[in-house]
Amino acid sequence: MTTGKAETTGGPDRSLTDRRLLILVAEDVPVIHDVIELSLRPFKADYLFITDGQEVLDALEDTIPDLVLLDIALPGVDGWEVLRQMRANPRLSDVPVVVITAHGPGIEQDLMALGANAYLDKPFLPSALRLIVKHLL
Amino acid sequence: MRANPAMTDETPTIDSNEQAGKARRLRILIVEDVLMIHEVVERSLSDLKAEFISVRDGLTALDEIEEVLPDLIILDLALPVLDGWEVLRRLQSDQRTSGIPVVVMTAHGQSGLEQDVKTLGASAYIDKPFRPSDLRSAVDHVLGLT
Q1: How far apart are the CA of B136 and the nearest CA of chain A, in angstroms?
Q2: Distance from B74 to chain A by nearest Cα, in Å?
Q3: pTM of the model
Q4: pLDDT grade, residue B44 (50/70/90)?
Q5: Which of A11, A119, B14, B66 is the most exposed place for a label (fewest CB within 10 A)?
Q6: How far apart are CA B40 and CA B30, in angstroms?
Q7: Domain presence at residue B89
Q8: Averaged confidence pLDDT in chain B
Protein backbone atom coordinates (compact mmCIF):
# COMPACT_ATOMS: atom_id res chain seq x y z
CA MET A 1 0.00 0.00 0.00
CA THR A 2 1.41 3.41 -0.93
CA THR A 3 1.37 6.31 1.48
CA GLY A 4 -0.59 9.42 0.75
CA LYS A 5 0.37 13.06 0.56
CA ALA A 6 -0.57 15.56 3.19
CA GLU A 7 -3.23 18.15 2.39
CA THR A 8 -3.42 21.50 4.10
CA THR A 9 -6.21 23.98 4.53
CA GLY A 10 -6.38 27.32 6.24
CA GLY A 11 -9.21 27.03 8.73
CA PRO A 12 -11.94 29.66 8.39
CA ASP A 13 -11.75 32.63 10.70
CA ARG A 14 -14.72 32.39 13.04
CA SER A 15 -15.34 34.19 16.26
CA LEU A 16 -16.29 32.12 19.24
CA THR A 17 -20.09 31.82 19.10
CA ASP A 18 -22.51 28.99 19.69
CA ARG A 19 -21.25 25.67 18.53
CA ARG A 20 -22.30 24.65 15.03
CA LEU A 21 -24.60 21.66 14.68
CA LEU A 22 -23.53 18.56 12.84
CA ILE A 23 -26.40 17.22 10.76
CA LEU A 24 -26.14 13.90 8.98
CA VAL A 25 -28.39 13.76 5.93
CA ALA A 26 -29.02 10.22 4.71
CA GLU A 27 -30.64 10.78 1.32
CA ASP A 28 -29.78 9.35 -2.07
CA VAL A 29 -31.27 12.18 -4.15
CA PRO A 30 -28.67 14.97 -4.30
CA VAL A 31 -31.14 17.78 -5.02
CA ILE A 32 -32.78 17.06 -1.66
CA HIS A 33 -29.44 17.81 0.00
CA ASP A 34 -29.65 21.33 -1.45
CA VAL A 35 -33.26 21.71 -0.36
CA ILE A 36 -32.38 20.65 3.19
CA GLU A 37 -29.37 22.92 3.41
CA LEU A 38 -31.39 25.88 2.14
CA SER A 39 -34.32 25.09 4.41
CA LEU A 40 -32.12 24.93 7.48
CA ARG A 41 -30.06 27.99 6.66
CA PRO A 42 -31.21 29.82 9.83
CA PHE A 43 -29.44 27.11 11.85
CA LYS A 44 -25.69 27.16 12.11
CA ALA A 45 -24.94 23.72 10.79
CA ASP A 46 -22.39 21.62 9.05
CA TYR A 47 -23.61 18.69 7.00
CA LEU A 48 -22.59 15.16 6.25
CA PHE A 49 -24.42 14.20 3.05
CA ILE A 50 -24.51 10.43 2.61
CA THR A 51 -26.36 8.54 -0.12
CA ASP A 52 -26.09 4.92 1.00
CA GLY A 53 -27.32 3.16 4.13
CA GLN A 54 -24.13 1.23 4.83
CA GLU A 55 -22.10 4.42 4.55
CA VAL A 56 -24.44 6.00 7.09
CA LEU A 57 -23.76 3.16 9.52
CA ASP A 58 -20.02 3.45 8.84
CA ALA A 59 -20.11 7.19 9.55
CA LEU A 60 -22.00 6.58 12.79
CA GLU A 61 -19.17 4.31 13.94
CA ASP A 62 -16.92 7.33 13.93
CA THR A 63 -19.01 10.31 14.87
CA ILE A 64 -22.24 11.22 16.67
CA PRO A 65 -24.17 13.94 14.84
CA ASP A 66 -26.56 16.33 16.55
CA LEU A 67 -29.35 15.31 14.20
CA VAL A 68 -30.02 12.71 11.53
CA LEU A 69 -32.36 13.33 8.61
CA LEU A 70 -33.08 9.87 7.27
CA ASP A 71 -34.71 8.85 4.04
CA ILE A 72 -36.43 5.59 4.74
CA ALA A 73 -35.79 4.33 1.18
CA LEU A 74 -32.01 4.32 1.07
CA PRO A 75 -30.05 2.05 -1.24
CA GLY A 76 -27.95 -0.64 0.33
CA VAL A 77 -29.02 -0.83 3.95
CA ASP A 78 -32.42 0.87 4.09
CA GLY A 79 -33.55 3.56 6.50
CA TRP A 80 -35.53 1.12 8.64
CA GLU A 81 -32.39 -0.88 9.39
CA VAL A 82 -30.33 2.26 9.97
CA LEU A 83 -32.88 3.44 12.51
CA ARG A 84 -33.05 0.03 14.15
CA GLN A 85 -29.28 -0.13 14.56
CA MET A 86 -29.09 3.42 15.85
CA ARG A 87 -31.65 2.76 18.56
CA ALA A 88 -29.95 -0.49 19.54
CA ASN A 89 -26.66 1.36 20.11
CA PRO A 90 -26.48 3.12 23.49
CA ARG A 91 -24.10 5.71 22.04
CA LEU A 92 -26.63 6.67 19.34
CA SER A 93 -29.99 5.99 20.95
CA ASP A 94 -30.50 9.64 21.96
CA VAL A 95 -29.60 11.19 18.62
CA PRO A 96 -32.73 12.86 17.21
CA VAL A 97 -33.87 11.27 13.94
CA VAL A 98 -36.29 12.82 11.48
CA VAL A 99 -37.46 10.29 8.94
CA ILE A 100 -38.26 11.55 5.47
CA THR A 101 -40.58 9.32 3.53
CA ALA A 102 -42.43 9.16 0.26
CA HIS A 103 -44.42 6.16 1.41
CA GLY A 104 -47.57 8.06 2.18
CA PRO A 105 -49.76 7.57 5.27
CA GLY A 106 -49.71 4.39 7.32
CA ILE A 107 -46.11 3.91 8.38
CA GLU A 108 -45.88 6.74 10.87
CA GLN A 109 -46.72 4.59 13.87
CA ASP A 110 -44.19 1.97 12.85
CA LEU A 111 -41.54 4.66 12.50
CA MET A 112 -42.26 6.17 15.88
CA ALA A 113 -42.32 2.71 17.47
CA LEU A 114 -38.88 2.07 16.02
CA GLY A 115 -37.63 5.26 17.62
CA ALA A 116 -37.96 8.02 15.07
CA ASN A 117 -38.52 11.41 16.72
CA ALA A 118 -40.47 12.87 13.82
CA TYR A 119 -41.29 12.22 10.20
CA LEU A 120 -41.86 14.30 7.12
CA ASP A 121 -43.68 13.30 3.98
CA LYS A 122 -42.10 14.10 0.67
CA PRO A 123 -42.53 16.60 -0.83
CA PHE A 124 -42.08 18.72 2.29
CA LEU A 125 -42.25 22.42 2.93
CA PRO A 126 -38.96 23.99 4.07
CA SER A 127 -40.86 25.65 6.89
CA ALA A 128 -42.12 22.26 8.09
CA LEU A 129 -38.58 20.92 8.27
CA ARG A 130 -37.39 24.03 10.09
CA LEU A 131 -40.17 23.72 12.63
CA ILE A 132 -39.41 20.10 13.36
CA VAL A 133 -35.68 20.72 13.71
CA LYS A 134 -36.28 23.72 15.94
CA HIS A 135 -38.52 21.62 18.15
CA LEU A 136 -36.07 18.73 18.37
CA LEU A 137 -33.01 20.81 19.07
CA MET B 1 -0.57 19.04 29.19
CA ARG B 2 3.06 18.77 28.12
CA ALA B 3 5.18 21.74 27.09
CA ASN B 4 5.71 21.85 23.37
CA PRO B 5 9.44 21.80 22.63
CA ALA B 6 8.78 23.75 19.44
CA MET B 7 7.65 26.84 21.39
CA THR B 8 9.60 29.90 20.25
CA ASP B 9 8.87 33.58 19.71
CA GLU B 10 6.43 32.31 17.14
CA THR B 11 4.37 30.56 19.78
CA PRO B 12 0.86 30.42 18.35
CA THR B 13 -1.89 32.15 20.25
CA ILE B 14 -5.64 31.89 20.24
CA ASP B 15 -6.63 35.50 19.75
CA SER B 16 -9.76 36.78 18.09
CA ASN B 17 -8.84 40.46 18.04
CA GLU B 18 -7.22 42.43 15.24
CA GLN B 19 -3.73 41.43 16.39
CA ALA B 20 -4.55 37.81 15.58
CA GLY B 21 -3.27 38.11 12.06
CA LYS B 22 0.24 38.60 13.44
CA ALA B 23 0.21 35.36 15.49
CA ARG B 24 1.15 32.15 13.75
CA ARG B 25 -1.83 29.91 13.17
CA LEU B 26 -2.02 26.71 15.15
CA ARG B 27 -1.01 23.75 13.07
CA ILE B 28 -3.22 20.77 13.73
CA LEU B 29 -2.37 17.46 12.11
CA ILE B 30 -5.30 15.09 11.60
CA VAL B 31 -4.30 11.46 11.14
CA GLU B 32 -7.33 9.47 10.08
CA ASP B 33 -7.99 7.12 7.18
CA VAL B 34 -11.68 8.02 6.75
CA LEU B 35 -11.90 11.20 4.71
CA MET B 36 -15.27 12.24 6.08
CA ILE B 37 -13.89 12.30 9.61
CA HIS B 38 -11.26 14.84 8.58
CA GLU B 39 -14.15 17.14 7.71
CA VAL B 40 -15.89 16.47 11.01
CA VAL B 41 -12.70 17.17 12.98
CA GLU B 42 -12.02 20.41 11.09
CA ARG B 43 -15.57 21.60 11.60
CA SER B 44 -15.44 20.70 15.29
CA LEU B 45 -12.38 22.89 15.68
CA SER B 46 -13.33 25.53 13.13
CA ASP B 47 -13.27 28.49 15.53
CA LEU B 48 -9.65 27.94 16.48
CA LYS B 49 -7.27 29.89 14.31
CA ALA B 50 -5.81 26.75 12.86
CA GLU B 51 -4.22 25.37 9.77
CA PHE B 52 -5.34 21.77 9.33
CA ILE B 53 -3.04 19.23 7.80
CA SER B 54 -4.66 15.95 6.79
CA VAL B 55 -2.94 12.61 6.37
CA ARG B 56 -4.48 9.18 6.03
CA ASP B 57 -1.85 6.73 7.22
CA GLY B 58 0.73 6.41 9.97
CA LEU B 59 3.86 6.59 7.88
CA THR B 60 2.86 9.80 6.13
CA ALA B 61 1.95 11.16 9.55
CA LEU B 62 5.47 10.60 10.86
CA ASP B 63 6.96 12.26 7.78
CA GLU B 64 4.68 15.24 8.15
CA ILE B 65 5.28 15.58 11.88
CA GLU B 66 9.02 15.62 11.35
CA GLU B 67 8.68 18.27 8.69
CA VAL B 68 6.19 20.70 10.25
CA LEU B 69 6.23 19.94 14.00
CA PRO B 70 2.49 20.53 14.49
CA ASP B 71 1.08 22.11 17.62
CA LEU B 72 -1.43 19.32 18.07
CA ILE B 73 -2.03 15.88 16.62
CA ILE B 74 -5.44 14.23 16.36
CA LEU B 75 -4.60 10.56 15.89
CA ASP B 76 -6.81 7.63 15.04
CA LEU B 77 -5.32 4.39 16.29
CA ALA B 78 -6.60 2.22 13.45
CA LEU B 79 -4.51 3.36 10.51
CA PRO B 80 -3.15 1.68 7.42
CA VAL B 81 0.56 1.20 6.69
CA LEU B 82 1.63 2.08 10.24
CA ASP B 83 -0.95 2.02 13.02
CA GLY B 84 -1.55 4.74 15.56
CA TRP B 85 0.09 2.79 18.38
CA GLU B 86 3.36 2.70 16.49
CA VAL B 87 3.05 6.36 15.58
CA LEU B 88 2.68 7.16 19.29
CA ARG B 89 5.68 5.02 20.21
CA ARG B 90 7.88 6.70 17.66
CA LEU B 91 6.76 10.18 18.66
CA GLN B 92 7.66 9.40 22.27
CA SER B 93 11.09 8.08 21.38
CA ASP B 94 12.09 11.30 19.60
CA GLN B 95 12.91 14.35 21.72
CA ARG B 96 11.73 16.67 18.97
CA THR B 97 8.26 15.20 18.97
CA SER B 98 7.68 13.75 22.42
CA GLY B 99 6.20 17.01 23.71
CA ILE B 100 3.61 17.49 20.98
CA PRO B 101 0.14 17.00 22.47
CA VAL B 102 -1.74 14.08 20.96
CA VAL B 103 -5.48 13.45 21.17
CA VAL B 104 -6.10 9.82 20.36
CA MET B 105 -9.36 8.56 18.84
CA THR B 106 -10.25 4.93 19.01
CA ALA B 107 -13.12 2.55 18.51
CA HIS B 108 -15.53 2.23 21.41
CA GLY B 109 -15.62 -0.96 23.34
CA GLN B 110 -11.92 -1.61 23.52
CA SER B 111 -11.67 -1.46 27.27
CA GLY B 112 -8.44 -0.59 29.01
CA LEU B 113 -7.13 1.43 26.09
CA GLU B 114 -7.20 4.78 27.82
CA GLN B 115 -4.46 3.89 30.25
CA ASP B 116 -2.40 2.21 27.53
CA VAL B 117 -2.49 5.20 25.20
CA LYS B 118 -1.70 7.61 28.00
CA THR B 119 1.23 5.45 29.02
CA LEU B 120 2.45 5.83 25.46
CA GLY B 121 2.25 9.58 25.77
CA ALA B 122 -1.18 10.55 24.50
CA SER B 123 -2.50 13.70 26.15
CA ALA B 124 -6.15 12.79 25.81
CA TYR B 125 -8.32 10.02 24.51
CA ILE B 126 -11.77 10.01 22.97
CA ASP B 127 -13.96 7.09 22.01
CA LYS B 128 -15.47 6.71 18.62
CA PRO B 129 -18.15 7.49 17.73
CA PHE B 130 -17.37 10.93 19.12
CA ARG B 131 -19.48 14.03 19.47
CA PRO B 132 -17.84 17.10 17.93
CA SER B 133 -18.24 18.83 21.28
CA ASP B 134 -16.31 16.05 23.03
CA LEU B 135 -13.44 16.44 20.62
CA ARG B 136 -13.47 20.19 21.11
CA SER B 137 -13.44 19.78 24.90
CA ALA B 138 -10.49 17.42 24.71
CA VAL B 139 -8.58 19.82 22.47
CA ASP B 140 -9.41 22.80 24.67
CA HIS B 141 -8.14 20.89 27.68
CA VAL B 142 -4.96 19.71 25.98
CA LEU B 143 -4.15 23.16 24.60
CA GLY B 144 -4.97 24.87 27.88
CA LEU B 145 -7.89 26.82 26.47
CA THR B 146 -10.28 25.94 29.30
Answers
A1: 10
A2: 14
A3: 0.81
A4: very high
A5: B66
A6: 11
A7: yes
A8: 84
